[in-house]
């Protein structure tokens, strides 16, 4: 987790330095930005895997899901505030200065992480093998443990559906339905609030309904959101389209947050301590790795074949996310 944060700081400071010395333009600048984005993506996987690994080592197994829900709620607050802070900064400074502000925020996170203290008893004996062997062992353990494999597949498909929505919705709302950028931003704000609330209620919801029914409810809600979007496009629903797109945003953002928290206690319950890190790294690689792939694929499909096929893919992903959930406890 600390390494991922430190890497983010270095990448952003490096991008600012490249701008200051005048190389952040043309083909060279494009290559630098692509490399920075790739490294930031790796750092994000490292951070989220480390964060997920720290929680089960700080609290008892019965409290993992509730604790992770609170962590995710605060994280969602940051995700909601980030675009607003960026927009404010860009109104008064150049983009590289916003990167510098981001580096300062990451430094704040780095110092906050120094307050996390794991007891010696919480730390397993290190595995004496290569990084490649550990990664392979993590994926093998994930694939051969049915409950972990099913929750991971469900989360992969849920995230893929969310990215299909994020790729499709701006074009659909602004170009096809004629919403203003301000109205669309307000819909995004409603979705952000839903994400915060979803993370907060996820653990009590699982405790009340059980994991399988909670995840099926999430899939049903996100599929209903796609149906609302399609009905809005077809002028089937009464009232302004902003209202129905707002409902879709609530279902999508809230459902995604609930999905990420609902099974967060399973890795610690079904893995020996020495394999927990490699297992969670394998999970995060799949769950986060599918996001840019889906976004690019849906974007290419939409530009080549139109919005209809992109909507169909989005709908299929949300419906398919329910299939692995049927095999959850």
Describe this structure as you would to a colleague.
With 329 residues, this protein is mostly helical. It has two domains: 1-113, no CATH class; 132-329, Growth Hormone, Chain: A. The chain is 82% helix and 0% strand. It has 13 helices and no strands. The radius of gyration is 21 Å and the shape is globular. The chain starts with a helix and ends with a helix. The mean pLDDT is 85. Keywords: Cell membrane, Membrane, Transmembrane, Transmembrane helix. It is found in: Cell membrane.
Helix/strand layout:
Elements: H1 2-20, H2 26-58, H3 64-90, H4 95-113, H5 131-144, H6 146-176, H7 181-209, H8 211-233, H9 241-262, H10 266-269, H11 276-305, H12 307-320, H13 322-325
In short:
This protein has 329 residues and is mainly alpha-helical. The chain has 13 helices and no strands.
Tertiary shape? globular
CATH class of the largest domain: Mainly Alpha
Number of helices: 13
Gyration radius over CA? 21 Å
